[in-house]
């Protein structure tokens, strides 16, 4: 009898602990981008171009062409959004399988990013295996870039060589984003030399001058933050559909909450004022946002939306959340280089009231 009583007490304690500590809202740890060293000046750097011909077809052929040529083939974009690097993003999101973004600067195409499986990033193909990429691509851990009289050398880490390759085609450069778990190509970014140098996605040495940094005004930065938020939602659904998951509906109220959290996180790290960061469950409850389940991904120090989503896809816990079948709503908020991505499961009636 005493043993039975002890067992009942033990089970009661377990149930109480489960009730109080099993929150329906999960929060993954903040993901920090791999940090690049400050650019290092070096003497007597020598240009070492790779003898690889530029593709004759596909998206890379538009780099350096007038934007009118791009419009002639792809039409007007769904959205035009600013970036932090001096170009505008022309976003084509009518079909996630054809998802494209073109970077336009002073009437010229300086960058093309695609994650759409039906697009043509020749000589590559979205979904191509990492083994195939290594078989048909000259992969080096150092890439030399010449811009004007300046020479820049980018050094790729061992992790970059598995998840974020860089290839050179004369004066066009291709970043290849790899899904580390599936070992497949998830996205491609083609750039001219100036755009690559401004992004500085890898450790860099240089001979000559560094390009002056661009500092957006506060008003422009707000618009950039909004653009990054929308692009993260786009890319989340692109990757979900590719993994046979339903796309998520955007919840504006949750996006506002996510933006506030990104801002508070930045304040906590850079301000002397003490900023309390409430839990996701507290934030949703205080905002009267109903949910059955919720989860959150956060990230910092990534240069833009595409880089942040690539980081989450290659982090096991963040990936599981991003691709989870449990959720039907999403809200994203960006503040500078702080990114918050919130997922909710709501009943249809609750979602309609938002």
UniProtKB/TrEMBL annotation:
Pfam families in the record: CAP (PF00188), CAP_assoc_N (PF14504)
InterPro entries in alphabetical order: CAP_assoc, CAP_dom, CAP_sf
Q: Which UniProt keywords apply?
A: Coiled coil
Its domain of life reads Bacteria
Please report the stretch or stretches of sequence annotated as the CAP-associated domain: 63-202
Q: Which SUPFAM superfamilies match?
A: PR-1-like
Q: Which Gene3D superfamilies match?
A: CAP (3.40.33.10)
Residue span(s) of domain SCP? 234-335
Q: Give the residues annotated as coiled coil.
A: 263-297
Q: Which PANTHER family match?
A: SCP DOMAIN-CONTAINING PROTEIN, SCP-LIKE EXTRACELLULAR PROTEIN
The protein here is known as CAP domain-containing protein
**Organism per entry:** Planococcus glaciei
Q: Which lineage ranks, top first, belong to the organism behind this chain?
A: Bacteria, Bacillati, Bacillota, Bacilli, Bacillales
